[in-house]
Design brief:
single chain; Serine Threonine Protein Phosphatase 5, Tetratricopeptide repeat; 3 domains; five-stranded mixed β-sheet; 5 strands; 64% helix; 4% strand; globular
Amino acid sequence: MIITFIINFLILLITSSPTVCTGDSGELITASKTLGIGHPPGYPLYVLLGKIFSIFIPFGNIAYRVNCMSVFFGALSCGIIYLIIKELLLSDNSAVKNSHIFIWFCSFATAFSLAFSHNFWSQCVQTKGGIYTLNAFFMTIIIYSLIADKNILLIIFLCGIGLGNHHTLSLYFPGIFLYLILIKKISFSFKKINYYLLFFVIGFSVYLYLFLRSQQHPVDNWDNPGVFENFLRVVFRIGYGGVMHIEEKGGYLLRPFSLFLQQIWEYIRNVYNSSTIIGFFIGIFGLMYSYKRNRKIFWCLLMIFIFSGPFFMFLANKPVNEDTRDLLEPFHIPSIIIFSIWIGLALSYITKKVKWTPLFITIFLVFLFSSNFQKNNLRYNFFPYDLGKNILKTVPDNSMIFLDKADESVFILAYMKLALKNRPAVDVYDCNASAFPNIYGDRYYWIKGRDRTMVRLPIERKMIQENNKNVYYLSENPNYFNDMKFSKIGLLNVLGRKMPNYNFSDIYALRENRFRYRDTVLAYSYHLTLANYYIETNQKSLVKTEFENMKILSKENISADIAYLYYNNGLFDEAIEEYKLAIVKEPQKIEYYNNLGTILNKQKRFKDAILVYLKAIEISPYYVDAHYNLAVTYWESGNWTGVINEFEKVLQIDPKRTDVIKFIETAKLKL
């Protein structure tokens, strides 16, 4: 087991990210470094362990030390899988009990089949992956404790403290409970139930860290759980996607049957891709062999597999696309762990029956390693770190930056400002009050949408007026205040300062070596933002350079994004040409026709706009925006009959659009 752990630890460490990653990485590193409160459910166990690793790892930056925790628990989980297979083989009467080499080889191979699987490896080498490798550790140590007949109170304690890391551990409880009933045959007297509850609560009490630490006002204090009501909101993720990322709206069960089939197929595809074609079919054989070998253990493992995999996918009820595929990837790890156990059982059977099996298994592991190495080698991924540095490079000292963008950039800057303490003369504020100290009031987290904007803008206005500092916004559209004019400057927007035109490739440094999906999305946004700046400052050659960078990063139809940039900057002719290119690539995309019609209408090219809107309606007769905009074009061109017809269709399609009634009445008066 120790050898297995050490080898896996070294391999995973070599491929681990050297610094902050995308996703929640920056926030979790900051929370670990400062003993703060992570995003709901707060991740108290992760934060406490992250603090230990940040102190006692004797090398590397803070991010790398916390990343080592992901590596450590990933390698430790592989070591425990080794023990699980060893225990299962030793308990098998048909096994060659005296063949230590046989047992060692099968256990060793199983551990590496888990370590080299894509989903598992991908989480071992990044910061947030530590949540999922720690979850894997609890899952494997609980399964091993069950199989090795350890004390039930220990198992229950592990269940309690494991929930202090991630709620999805509760999905394994039905399988664990079944094992205790079928195999251990535990009794449930009143006295024993009290003991079980006591040890579970002792473990679960790790969440008290959130309540106690929040009252010390750490810099990273998400939703202030030092107040009891807020404490419950954080622990149970109220207002933050619900327990286990399950959607709060729309119910758990309602969906088209076609979507249900897509979700199940996506789950199967993920297990297949993670294990490769060879590992997938070995695992399927192991599943069947497990049933024949020991049906009680089979049903327990299958229940954990189903509840942590297909059942979770069913509850989460996410659409199938690249965004959700990336989001749900780490949640497949429990299924991959059970699948690796089945792979190990299959290997034990094949090894006994086929002479050349060790050679075949070696080839399989080499194939698995080579298939997933490039995808999971983050050794040279400095892109998120460089992005944060470039944002801070944009501003001089005596500046304030308001961050009104997605979590990615905010969390990276939280790491650089709060953990590394870079640029002390620059004040940074998070408009969502997540990773940075909250300046908007305790109940700000509870407010959503426009109501949140109504709360924050007066506070920001007051800060801007009372501080004699340069003001910058990281935002798509910072023009919140009618009396304040912002202009673009690199990745940011600056208030009231006319800046020279810069070539930011001379100022920024960006190492774009290898990208995962989240990195690619963020890199695409990076180049899109710079292209927008170069368009505004009329630096045409640099605009083309950024467009080429975007084409390299995206397989999607980027002409629509380019068209929108031109439109926002008042370059209507260029926007029209790009929308035409976008339509050639995706002729059924009705939004492109609608946007093109809007621009043509602004140019008073009413006949062209009408033809474009009619094309959108031909593709999708119930596309209400096209009917509405066509009515507007008819209005501006004086076709009052057309106005009435189209607004009436708007009302038929969407009866809630009662605002068009007054337009219909006015148009009738014009006839």
